[in-house]
Every structure is written in structure tokens, then in C-alpha cells.
Amino acid sequence: MLYTWTDLIWLFFIYSFGGWCIEVCYAAVRRRKFVNRGFVNSPLCPIYGFGSLLFGIFLPELTQRPFFLFLGGMLLATLLEYATGMAMEKIFRKKLWDYSAIKWNLSGYVCARYALLWGVLAVLTMLVTNPLLCGLLRMVPRTVTLAVQWTAAGLLLLDFITTAMAVLDMKVNARRLAQLSAEMKRTSRLLENRLTIWVQKRMQKSFPAIDREAMTEEMKARSETLLTGKTVFAEGCCFYKLVSLFFIGAFLGDLTETVFCLLTTGILMSRSSVVYGPFSIVWGLGCALLTLFLYRYRNKSDRYIFMAGTFLGGAYEYVCSVFTELVFGTVFWDYSGFVFNLGGRINLLYCFFWGIAAVVWLKIIYPFLSGLVERIPPRVGKAVCSCMILFMIFNMAISGLALARYTERNTAVASAYAPTPLEAFLDARFPDERIERIYPNAKIVE
């Protein structure tokens, strides 16, 4: 079954509401009272909605193979839950949920029990509930659908902004409370918005792990840094470290693939993901994401990291393949000729390569590169990273437009109208010959 964007939006809100109902009922049984367990104030748990989006976008072609559908759903949902838990901990400095007491957990963010449950839910939703819901919802008049969806999206956006402002205000107030006098504290509280106070109280009630005192940890760390005068650029696993590793990994990945193709085929071909510069976005994101997810496990055994890298790398490569096909109508690699492949998108051998790469990266390459990055003067490092981010945003935007135009030229029937100025620019600057030279393995698909 193929899903339209209208279907996916419906499913997002339906499953967000369903997840909220499940969370509220579970909390009611445990605490003997009603608690709004959603991050936002409305009766929605967006993590369930985003899970349904991931299933609907990346798993439809696995519906004929239930076992792989189960594995795919388990991996996607577990990664989503892990990323969300990590992000929430970064914001609140405490876990909003903690599975540490459950056997086979990963840093308390995810555990085997709920990962298996996510896999079962993926099979049920993709094979049973989604076809039923989409069949009913497609009978709703389009005008009604658009009105309901746009209204719901607007209210959710407003709700999210209100909640986010309240959360940020919790952190700001924590810093103020550590610095201002008692009189200033009372003044600050009088000036706080009533809605913000209500949202903050609801968040603390819904997630007891949130504590304002915990918010001061970040402020204390910064104060110590200011007092000692010691500043290190991109220390630990921070934003600038991940950005630096993205660009280094993108360049080294492009170089590695180019040399590998030259040695195995005798042909020197471009392996870049963008039209300007030797950068492989897949490798760059892979390095950054591997570091983000596995940084705290870098001291684990090689076998542990290998298994994590195998699963994460395989899931990541599969998602990248589906994404590029959906967005650009183009497939950049095809493993159909390999044994133990899944839709030609991934194969077992290359998943093992991802596992080996994870071990080599975390044990050898990352410590070396991390040390080099941290030696950069902070001002220089931040300025260079900012410039490179702007350059890559522009580069990726132009590359996406050029690829989309290339696909359009080679699939659409020649039209009588003249191309727009943007299309004319893309046709002149990125003709078929140049695109095929940059992306020699790209295949257009329907």
C-alpha cells in the first residue's frame, strides 16, 4: 500500500492521540489519578505520530515480508525513542523515562522489551490498522480533510511553541535563581506569564524527573569554566564536535569510496553527494550519528560496538536509500546482485562493513580526530564551522534542485512552455552530462 501525504498526516494525528490515550491510561493505573503525559498540552503524544510517519514512509515495501517488517519497525521506532530520550535529557538534564531497571536496556532510553513491542505494533499497523484507517479517511471530502488537517497542524504548532517557550523559561529561571538576590527572585516570579507557569507545573507533574535545581548544573559548569579561564573548542560530544566530524567524515568517505572504486574497477569516478566539492553526505552523517549514538559506549568491547554498528549502519543506509528515491526519484546504489540483500537497498556484507567501520571509528579514528579538533582556537573553530554549515546548506540545496531537474528532464514529457528562470539556470549549469559525471551510478526510478 502506498501512502499519500494526506494519509500520513491523518495517521500522524490519529496515532498521536492513540498514544496519548495509552500513556494517560498507563499513568492513571500507576499513580491512581489523571496525568497529561504528553509533552505538549493538547491530547497528543507526537512521538507516536512520528513513529507512524516513519513506518508509512520507510516500511511499505516490506509488507510482503512480515519478519523484515517487524525488524524494520523495531529498529526505526527504537532509534526514534532513543533520539527523543537523549534530546529530552539534554533539555531537562534528567531522563523523562528510564528503563534502567528493566533487563537488556540501553542507557535507560530503550530496552529489548519495548523494542519488541514496537516491532509487533509496526506489523499490526502496516498490515491491519493503516489499510482500514486510510480506506475510511479517503472517503472524507478533500475540503473537509484540508480544513481539519490545517487547523490541527496550526493548533499543534502553537501548542508546541508555547510549551517550548515554557521549557526554555524553566532553564532561564534556573540560571537567574542562582545569580539574583531574594528580592530579584520574587520580582522575576511576579513577572512570569501565567500560562508559562501553568505549563511548567504540568510538565513537572507529568514528568516527576524534571527538577528546576537540576537546571543549574549547566550554569555551574559554565561558571567554573569562566573562573578557571580554560576553554576548549568542541569539548566532548557537543554540537561543534559533531559538525566538525560531519565535514571530516564526508570528505574522508568520498576519498575512501573513490580509492575503493579505483582499486576494484580500475575506473576513477566521482563518489560525491553534492555538486560542489568532494563530500559524501551519507558518510558525513554516518560519522556524526555514530558518534552521537555510540559516544557513551566508546569504552565498550569491540564486539558490542560491532553489533551496534551493524544494526545502526544497516538501518541508516536503508533509510537513506528510501529517502533519496522518494525525494529525487533516483537510486544511487543497488545491491540486488548481492546475496542476503533487502530490496537492493542493503545487504548483509555491507552491514558487517558498517560494524567494522564503527569499531575502527570509535577506537582509532575518533580519538585522533577529536584531539585535533579540540586544539583549534575556539573563535576560529566556531567561525569556520558556521561558514561551512552555510556553504553545505547552499551546496545541498543546489544539488537537490539539480537532481530534481535532471529527473524531470529525463522522465517528463517535453512541455511546450518555456522553463522558468530557475529551471533555465539549472539546465545551463547542470546539464545531463555534468550530473551523470557527478553521480555515475544514479538510476532514475518511477
What would you say this structure looks like, in words?
The chain has about 450 residues and is an all-alpha fold. It has 15 helices and six strands. Strands 1-2 form a two-stranded antiparallel ribbon. A two-stranded antiparallel sheet has the order 3-6. The chain has a two-stranded antiparallel ribbon with strand order 4-5. A hairpin with a 3-residue loop joins strand 4 and strand 5. The longest helix is centred in the middle third of the chain and has 38 residues. The protein is globular and about 65 Å long.
Poorly predicted spans: 180-185, 187-192, 212-219
Would you report the number of β strands? Answer: 6
- Could you say which overall geometry the principal axes of the C-alpha atoms support? globular
- Radius of gyration, in Å, reads 24 Å
Amino-to-carboxy terminus distance: 16 Å
Key descriptive features of the protein:
15 helices, 446 residues, single chain, mainly alpha, 6 strands, 70% helix, two-stranded antiparallel ribbon
Task: Summarize the helices and strands and which ones pair or pack.
Layout: H1 5-31, H2 46-58, H3 66-92, E1 105-106, E2 110-111, H4 112-137, H5 142-179, H6 182-191, H7 194-206, H8 216-228, H9 239-265, H10 281-294, H11 302-328, E3 330-331, E4 341-342, E5 346-347, H12 348-374, H13 378-411, H14 421-429, H15 432-438, E6 443-444
Antiparallel strand pairs: 1-2, 3-6, 4-5
